[in-house]
Write a structure and sequence with these properties.
This protein is mainly α. Helices cover about 75% and strands about 0% of the residues. It has 18 helices and two strands. It is found in: Cell membrane.
Length: about 500
C-alpha cells in the first residue's frame, strides 16, 4: 500500500465513529437493565401482590408467565421491526410502551389488570431488547471500543437478574410491591431523554425489505408453544397430553418456519444469521448456560428465604457476590482479553468456572455456612458467566449486516428467554421429584421438611452442572472465530455479511 493511501483510508474510517457513542451507551445500558431486572424484580414482590389482589395459587404463576410468553414469543418479530422501522425509533417506542405497561401493572386493582399489564410489558420488551443490543452493534465499530461496550452490556445482561432480586426485596420491604413495577417508569424516562439527545442511526443501516408475515406468525406461535409447553410441564407433568401437544405443535411450527425462511426473498430470520457456526455457537452455548443459571436463581431464593429465613432485602444482598463476579468477569476479563485471544478461550473456560461454582452448591446442607460455601460459589458462578456473556454478546452480531443487526440481537435474547423458561420448569420439576423421593425414603409426608427441600435443590443443581459442562463443550467445538482485528469496522452497506463490508475476523 502506498504511503498516501494509508492516511486517506484512516480519514475515511474516522467519520464512522459516532462522537456521542459513549453517552449513548449509558442510556442503552439503563434500558437493558430495566428489561433484564424485570424478569426477577417481580418474583420477590409476587407473594405481596398475590395477597393484595387476591390472586389464587393456581393463577399466581401467570404473573411471571404472561411476561415471559409475550417476551419470548415476540422477540424475533421485535428484532425485525427494529431493522425495518429504525432501531432508535423502536428503542424509544419500546421504552415508552414498557413504562406505560408498568404504570398499569403498578396501579392494578385486580388480577386481570396485573396479568394484562405483564403481558404488555413483554410485548414492548420484545421490541426494546433487540433494539438496544443492535444499536450497540452498529454504534461501536472499532474492535477495542466494541469490546469495552459489550463488556459493560454483558455485565448488565448477566447481573440484572440478581440486581432485580435485590431491588425487588428493598422496594417490597420498605415501600410497596407496586413499586417493583413503578420503578420502571423512572428508568424509562431517563433512557428516553438520553436516547433523544445522544442516540443516532444512519439511514443506510435500516432494512427496506417487506415484513415477512408468514414468518412472524410461525415463529411467534412456535416460540409461544415452546415456552408455554415448559410452563405446563412444571404445572401438569411432562407426560400430560397438553404438555406433549404443545411440544409437538412447537416442533411442527418451528420446522415450518425454517422451511418458509429458506424459500422466501425477504425472510424474518435470514438463515445465514444462525447457520454461521460462531453466532450459532454463541446462541446455543448461552441458551444452555441460562437454563442452569435461572434455575439456580430460583433455588437460591427459596433456600435463603425458606431455609435460612432471610428477609427479602437480605436475600437480595446475599446475591451481591454473584453480581460482583459477573461485573468482574465481563469488564475486567472479557473486555481486556476479547481482542487478544479467540472467543472460545473466554466462553469455554468461563462456563467451566461457572460450573465449578455450581458444583460447590451441590454440597449445600440445611445448616451450610453462607460465608464459606454460598458466597464463594456465587462469586465463581458470576465470574464465569460474566466472562462468557461478554464474548457471546459480541459474537451474536459480529460480522452481521447492519440491516440484520436487530434480528441477530433478537436471537441472543431469544436464547436467553427460552433458556430461562426451560431452566425454571425443568429444574423445578427435577427438584420436586427428588424432594418427593426423599420423603418416601424417609417415611414422612411433610413437603415443608427442610432436609427434603434441600435434597431436591442439590439434585437439580447437579443437573445444572451437567448442562453447564455441555454448554462449554459445544462452545469449544462450534466457536472458531479468532481475535477480532483491532481496526475492524462494522458492516456499513447493504452488501455486507459475506463481502468486504463485514467485520473481518481472523479464523484459527
Amino acid at each position: 500500500m502506498s504511503e498516501s493511501a494509508a492516511p486517506a483510508s484512516a480519514a475515511q474510517a474516522t467519520p464512522q465513529l459516532d462522537p456521542k457513542r459513549w453517552k449513548a451507551l449509558v442510556f442503552i445500558a439503563i434500558a437493558q437493565l430495566m428489561v433484564v431486572l424485570d424478569a426477577t424484580v417481580v418474583n420477590i414482590a409476587l407473594p405481596h401482590a398475590q395477597q393484595s389482589l387476591h390472586i389464587s395459587d393456581a393463577n399466581r404463576q401467570w404473573v411471571i408467565t404472561a411476561y415471559s410468553l409475550a417476551f419470548g414469543g415476540l422477540l424475533l418479530f421485535g428484532g425485525r421491526v427494529a431493522d425495518l422501522w429504525g432501531r432508535r425509533k423502536a428503542f424509544i417506542v419500546g421504552l415508552i410502551g414498557f413504562a406505560l405497561a408498568s404504570a398499569i401493572g403498578g396501579a392494578a386493582v385486580n388480577s386481570t389488570m396485573l396479568l394484562g399489564a405483564r403481558a404488555l410489558q413483554g410485548v414492548f420488551g420484545a421490541l426494546l431488547a433487540p433494539a438496544a443490543l443492535s444499536l450497540l452493534a452498529v454504534t461501536f465499530t472499532e474492535a477495542k471500543e466494541r469490546a469495552t461496550a459489550f463488556g459493560i452490556f454483558g455485565a448488565i445482561a448477566g447481573a440484572g437478574g440478581a440486581v432485580g432480586l435485590l431491588l425487588g426485596g428493598a422496594l417490597t420491604q420498605y415501600f410497596n410491591w407496586r413499586w417493583a413495577l413503578y420503578v420502571n417508569i423512572i428508568f424509562a424516562i431517563i433512557a428516553v431523554i438520553g436516547a433523544t439527545l445522544f442516540i443516532e442511526e444512519r439511514a443506510d443501516q435500516r432494512n427496506r425489505s417487506r415484513l415477512d408475515i408468514p414468518g412472524v406468525l410461525l415463529a411467534t406461535s412456535g416460540l409461544v408453544a415452546l415456552v408455554y409447553g415448559f410452563t405446563k410441564a412444571e404445572e401438569s407433568g411432562w407426560g400430560s397430553s397438553v404438555t406433549i401437544g404443545l411440544f409437538v405443535a412447537s416442533v411442527v411450527l418451528l420446522a415450518l418456519f425454517v422451511l418458509v425462511e429458506s424459500r422466501i426473498k425477504a425472510p424474518l430470520l435470514p438463515l445465514r444469521v444462525v447457520l454461521d457456526r460462531n453466532r450459532g455457537g454463541a446462541y446455543l452455548g448461552l441458551g444452555l448456560a441460562i437454563i442452569g443459571m435461572f434455575g439456580l436463581f430460583l433455588f437460591m431464593t427459596y433456600y435463603l428465604q425458606g431455609i435460612k429465613q432471610y428477609s427479602p432485602v437480605m436475600t437480595g444482598v446475599a446475591f451481591l457476590p454473584m453480581v460482583v463476579g459477573m461485573i468482574t468477569g465481563s469488564t475486567q476479563i472479557g473486555t481486556r482479553l476479547v481482542t487478544r485471544i479467540p472467543a472460545r478461550w473466554l466462553m469455554g473456560p468461563g462456563l467451566l468456572v461457572a460450573a465449578l461454582g455450581m458444583l460447590m452448591l451441590t454440597q449445600m446442607k440445611v445448616d451450610s455456612n453462607y460465608w464459606t460455601l454460598i458466597l464463594p460459589a456465587e462469586f465463581l458462578l458470576g465470574l464465569g458467566m460474566g466472562t462468557s456473556f461478554m464474548p457471546a454478546m459480541n459474537l451474536s452480531t459480529l460480522g452481521i449486516r447492519p440491516q440484520d443487526a436487530g434480528v441477530a440481537s433478537a436471537m441472543i435474547n431469544t436464547s436467553q428467554q427460552v433458556g430461562g423458561s426451560i431452566g425454571t420448569a425443568l429444574l423445578n420439576t427435577i427438584a420436586a421429584s427428588a424432594t418427593t423421593s426423599w420423603l418416601v425414603a424417609h417415611h414422612t409426608a411433610d413437603p415443608r421438611n427442610p432436609f427434603a427441600q434441600v435434597h431436591g435443590y442439590t439434585v437439580a443443581i447437579w443437573w445444572a452442572v451437567g448442562i453447564m459442562f455441555v454448554a462449554s463443550a459445544l462452545v469449544f467445538v462450534l466457536v472458531n472465530a479468532g481475535r477480532p482485528d483491532h481496526h475492524a469496522v462494522a458492516a456499513s452497506g447493504a452488501g455486507a455479511e459475506d463481502g468486504a463490508d463485514a467485520i473481518p475476523v481472523v479464523m484459527h
